[in-house]
Give the backbone structure.
Amino acid sequence: MARDLFYHEIVEAIGKPGCPICNILEKEERNTLWDILYERVNDPGVRKKFRRSSGLCRRHAWRLYELSRRDPLIGEPGPAIIYRDVLETVVERGLWEKPIDGECFICERISESNEAFIEEFAGKAASTDLLEVYENNKSSILCRYHYSMILKKLARIDKKSADRLREIQGSKIKDLINALKNFIETYDYRSNRRPTSYESLSTFLAITYLKGSTVLDVINK
C-alpha cells in the first residue's frame, strides 16, 4: 500500500469530526498565518507578498489580526509592523484612493493545497485502505464540494473504488439524518435519554456536509 505523508495527513484529518479535506485546509491556513507572525514578520519576501495584496484578502487579514490577539506566543506588534509597511507602500504608490488589491498569497496557497489533497485522496482511495478508514470514522464526512471533486477523479482512476465511495457517502448521510432525528427527540419532555456524542455532533456534521468549512470561501470566491 502506497502510504506516505499525504496518506497519514488525510488519515489524521479523518480522525477528527467534519470534512477531512476542509480540516486539512483549515489547519494549513492557521499554521501559515501563525508561522508568519511567529518568525517571518520581517522577512523581505513575505513583506513583498503583503504589499502585492495590500495586506492579504479580507478573510486572511482579519484572521491574522485575531490570531495575534489570541496567542500569547505571538503578541500584537507583528500585524502592526506588517500593516505600517503596507500602508506606507499604498501611499507611496498613490493607491490610497483605489480599492484594488492583488491576489492574496494565502488564498493561492490554500487553493493549491486543495487541488493537491483532492488528487491525493482519490489516488489513495484507489490504492490503499483509505476508504475503509473513512468508512469506519463515523464523524468524518466529506462535504459535498470535496466529495464531488474526489468522486469525479476517482471514477477516472478506478470505477470500483468510486462506486464504493458513493456507497459509503450514502450510508453516512442516512446515518446522519437518523442521528439528527434522535438528537431532536432527546429534547422532547417525554425523553429520559441523553444524546450520544455522535448525535450531539449531528447538526455540525449536517452543515459541514451541505456547506463545507468557511475555508471554501477562499477557493470558491
User: Anything to note?
Assistant: The two ends are 37 Å apart (CA to CA). The CA atoms of residues 7 and 124 lie 7 Å apart. Residues 5-215 form one domain.
